[in-house]
Amino acid sequence: MNVPFLDLKTQYHVFQHEIEEKALEVLESCSYIGGKYVKDFEDQLAAYLGENMLAIGCNSGTDALMLALRACNIQPGDEVITTSFSFFATAEAISAIGAVPVFADIRENDFTINPEQIVSRITNKTKAILPVHIFGTSCQMDEIMDIAHTHNLKVIEDAAQAIGSTYKGRKVGTLGDVACFSFYPTKNLGGCGDGGAVTTSEKNLATIVYALREHGAGKTGAKARELLNGISEDQTISEYSSDLYDPYKYYNYLIGYNSRLDAIQAAILSVKLKYLDSFNLARKRIAAIYNERLTDKVIKPAYEDSTSNSCWHQYVIRCNNKRALCDRLMSLNIGYGTFYPVPLHKQKVYGYNESLPVAEAAAAQTVCLPIFPELKETEVDYIIDSINKFMDE
Ligand SMILES: *Cc1c(COP(=O)(O)O)cnc(C)c1O
């Protein structure tokens, strides 16, 4: 048997007709940037997450993080506390806006940032906390929000892996000041290319993100500049007035980005969003089989408890003989992942001397097993039998 780690083709074929019809509709419309398809998807995503939410599409999850950080007015030199156990983009986005990522260690049982570790890293330069709902598991958001309120910090959720996960009955991506999603093809809601979104319930933050994703231009740019710099509209008008041109039309008010979500991606994501809950449920069923039947000689993920419901982006086991297990899986043609073999504080560009032992142990032990909605039960059985046999040898 040959079991891929992920099989995008099968999912494409399930929705091929609907996706192609939508994509062709966008092509025919010639409304490729902004417009109806993007707005519709943004509204659908916001409604999916919860009441009073706003969603702003952008180019990628990485851009979503940069836009969200800048919307929170994080400045060069400011410190942002984040987890060491995540995809590189989490830290990269902080560095890319000139701020400094400060890495905290994780909780042993679910790989999320350890709130106690956050507190011990707060300095007078700390401006925000950036928790990552890694593998689909919600962070300890009550504790994190309490810390943030006490120390007057912003909270930016990296929910790139956790669309549909909940914490105490609320969707992740609605819990901090602002949140970031990725629609990279391998994510639970994956597009046919790059894409991302920033979500927030705060209108002012949304205004700044709208402005930054389009070069800080126009009326939205002016408003965003006022919000970020605490200046009034009268001031803006007097500063920028001219007899020759409309100040709102021809001025850029912030150094922003070109980071829009393509209409064609938005239309495809609108199709797939309708099925997201059923995709996530299919993943949950597979996780339940792994949990029940995998040997206790590997450590199984403890992602879920009474407060946390996972979208099961990854099913991650820990074992002491990772190399040998990976070799075995490879020889049996079973796909696997090893997220994340290098914790962020050990990345060459960061090169921390400090040791974060829990993240380092996780990096040395984690093996991600296939978990995607179209994975067949016979394939899950084959994976489980293969691992159990290996662990018994
Ligand atoms: C995928 C991912 C990102 C980046 O998203 P892109 O769309 O690939 O830019 C950021 N953070 C985490 C945790 C991710 O998994």
Inertia-based shape? globular
Radius of gyration: 22 Å
Q: What string gives the helices and strands in order?
A: HHEHEHEHEHEEEEEHHHHHHEEHHEH
Range of strand content: 5-15%
Major sheet: order of its strands?
1-9-8-5-4-2-3
The low-pLDDT segments are none
Helical fraction equals: 40-55%
Which structural class fits the helix and strand makeup? alpha/beta
Terminal Cα span: 21 Å
Query: What's the mean pLDDT score?
Result: 96
How would you characterize the largest beta sheet? 7 strands, mixed
In total, the number of strands is 12
Q: Could you tell me which ligands this complex binds, including any ions or cofactors?
A: pyridoxal-5'-phosphate
- Specify the number of helices: 15
Give an overview in words.
With 393 residues, the chain is an alpha/beta fold. It has 15 helices and twelve strands. The protein has helices at 8-29, 36-49, 61-71, 88-96, 115-119, 141-151, 203-213, 218-229, 233-240, 247-250, 263-273, 276-293, 322-331, 357-365, 377-392, and strands at 54-58, 79-83, 100-104, 126-130, 154-158, 166-167, 170-171, 178-182, 196-200, 308-309, 315-318, 366-369. The strands form three sheets. The chain has a seven-stranded mixed β-sheet with strand order 1-9-8-5-4-2-3, with helices on both faces. Strand 2, helix 4 (88-96) and strand 3 form a beta-alpha-beta unit. The mean pLDDT is 96. Pyridoxal-5'-phosphate binds at residues 60-62, 86-87, 89-90, 132, 158, 160-161, 182, 184, 194, 196.
